[in-house]
Amino acid sequence: MENARDSVILVEGPEGALSVELVPLEEGASRGFLRFSPRNVRPSKAMAERLGAELSARPFAQYLICDSRKRVLEKTLGRRKWTVSPAVPRDPGRKCSTVTTFDLPSDESLVDNSGSRPDVSGTSHMSGLRVEVDGRPAWAFYTDDGENARVVSEGERKQGMLVAQDTDDMRVAADCLVRFLATTPKKWAVFSASLGRFVRQHRPIEMWRMELDSPKPFDHKCVLVSDRNKKAAIRLFSEYYDEPWLQSVLRLRKLRSDGNYWTYILEGGFVTVRLEGETGLIYDIYVTPSMQGKGLGGELMRCALTSLAGRVSSVYLHTSFPRAKSLYENFGFRTIHTQLGIRLDEMRFVPPARQQSM
């Protein structure tokens, strides 16, 4: 992909639009970030043919993409003889059992992922697996955080760890944990960047925390969500969060009833910001597929920063979209923290012409 335009595939028709932002990976693979509008879009034969042709023309043997809840991409490409399978196998692959950190034996040969003796103080909230590796035990522990499982060990922050006699066994234990989590309702397994070597085979996504000091106001055309435009906001919510209309109605109602949130809208996109004392958060920002590449992302950012200017000393956000990261950097945001995320419900799509070589 030589430029940003080549990295995004957009197909449109009377029934709606689909876009896939492509991020090349190693070994002839690419990760795709899917957007679709409306939420219940059913691509026509013409749209499906164009999407399949666009993807097949790219030099990739496989695509890793998180599909919609109604499996719009799987249905669209599956009918055209694409092979579709879970990117993370749905079984641990080895004999394992659930444990807590209190089940760790007092064994001087054991080390954690930092190379130190395992310290179980302050880890009672962790869950984990004990894995057999050629007759030797290894352990992988995580913190349950709603839809996320966190294996994060950063300074005093203890949200997971790997324990074994050597690092090769830790790699096996981490792999087993990711596979196990893929059988649960969780969406993400989040790892410290320092643990990336243990989960490299799952091609984790970089997740950036970015910050900006002293936000400044800008001219913009966005307007605050009100009774007059809330239907447009609900439609965009339904697309972005991939949820039924009623659920988006309730989501917007909750946001509007909380004085710390503001949602702004313009044709084709929305942004929600949150006030956290002297700090602001760009909570969510979205541009519908058919309006991508037309400057709406920048317009929404100008609105978000204007709404927070004079109220906070700094603003932060989280993203895993490379194009969005570039946009935020243009506004002066800097990356202050990186973690790695494995999307547990991601699917692998293989074009028909590539299937024999896989």
Q: How does this model look, in words?
A:
By secondary structure, this protein is an alpha+beta fold. The protein has three domains: 5-86 and 346-357; 96-202, Aminopeptidase (3-Layer(aba) Sandwich); 215-312, Aminopeptidase, CATH 3.40.630.30. 23% of the residues lie in helices and 36% in strands. The chain is built from seven helices and 22 strands. The chain has helices at residues 45-57, 72-78, 167-181, 230-241, 245-257, 296-308, 322-330; strands at 8-13, 16-24, 29-37, 62-65, 83-86, 96-99, 111-112, 126-133, 136-145, 148-151, 153-154, 157-158, 160-164, 188-192, 205-213, 223-224, 261-266, 269-276, 279-287, 314-319, 334-343, 347-350. Strands 6, 7, 8, 9, 10, 13, 14, 15, 16, 17, 18, 19, 20 and 21 form a 14-stranded mixed beta sheet that branches. The protein has a six-stranded mixed beta sheet with strand order 1-2-3-4-22-5, with helices on one face. A two-stranded antiparallel sheet has the order 11-12. Helix 4 (230-241) crosses helix 5. The longest helix has 15 residues, at 167-181. It is globular. The two termini are 22 Å apart.
Short synopsis of the structure:
The chain has helices spanning 45-57, 72-78, 167-181, 230-241, 245-257, 296-308, 322-330, and strands spanning 8-13, 16-24, 29-37, 62-65, 83-86, 96-99, 111-112, 126-133, 136-145, 148-151, 153-154, 157-158, 160-164, 188-192, 205-213, 223-224, 261-266, 269-276, 279-287, 314-319, 334-343, 347-350.
